[in-house]
Design a protein that fits this description.
Number of domains: 1
CATH topology: 2-enoyl-CoA Hydratase, Chain A, domain 1
Number of strands: 9
Helix content: 40-55%
Structural class: alpha/beta
CATH superfamily: 2-enoyl-CoA Hydratase, Chain A, domain 1
CATH class: Alpha Beta
CATH architecture: Alpha-Beta Complex
Number of helices: 7
Distance between the termini: 34 Å
Largest sheet: 7 strands, mixed
Order of helices and strands: EHEHEEHEHEEHHEHE
Radius of gyration: 17 Å
Length: 203
């Protein structure tokens, strides 16, 4: 099942997301690790979830200092988004998340993994909330089961959005029935974002 935004044309899968155990860290990766910063860019899938969770756990093992997660994503696989969402609170240190570009669908779900006080975005960030999308095929009984699971998933995610934004569940159900786009300033009023920032030291 996927929770994804509009289709991106000519988008390539991320390459070389992981490193072999005997490979040294690249300079950029080393700098990001020292800065306790994790990047989430592009479609959310199992490889991204594995990489991000590994980085969060490694940084947690290094110390209790704050971790910053910067996200720009069109969304993707729901369960991969769930994993990162949950790992943000599970890993231990405080995680500050910063949205940039667009934070859509499963990306928005990940964004809401941080506590409300620790959710920031850059001025031109856009957010997209909507219901899970899924294509099912097969026997009628299997289709019925999958449809029921999609409805359960929709309710679960809508309740998370309501809890994390302070909006009523009924409003979230209405807003996410179709693609619900929201800009940075409105995202603050909606409860998605605590503060719009323009400089690194503001978060």
């Amino acid at each position: 099942m996927t929770l994804t935004g509009p289709r991106l044309d000519d988008t390539e899968k991320e390459k070389n997301e992981g490193m072999k155990p005997d490979q040294p860290m690249a300079p950029v990766q080393t700098a990001l690790f020292k800065a306790r910063t994790v990047l989430i860019f592009g479609e959310i899938d199992m490889k991204v979830a594995e990489r991000v969770c590994g980085q969060l756990l490694a940084l947690a093992a290094e110390g209790n200092g704050d971790i910053r997660v910067i996200i720009n994503s069109p969304g993707g696989h729901v369960e991969s988004g769930d994993t990162i969402h949950d790992m943000i609170s599970f890993c231990g240190p405080r995680v500050k998340i910063i949205g940039t570009g667009w934070v859509a669908s499963a990306g928005a779900h990940i964004f809401l993994g941080a506590e409300r006080a620790n959710r920031f975005c850059l001025p031109n960030t856009r957010f997209l909330l909507h219901q899970p999308l899924g294509g099912v095929a097969g026997q009628a009984s299997d289709i019925t089961i999958e449809a029921e699971e999609i409805l359960k998933m929709r309710e679960r995610i809508n309740r998370i959005i309501a809890r994390e934004t302070g909006q009523t569940y009924e409003k979230i159900v209405t807003d996410t029935d179709r693609n619900f786009w929201i800009g940075a300033q409105d995202a603050v009023g909606y409860g998605l974002v605590t503060k719009i920032i323009s400089r690194s030291e503001e978060a």
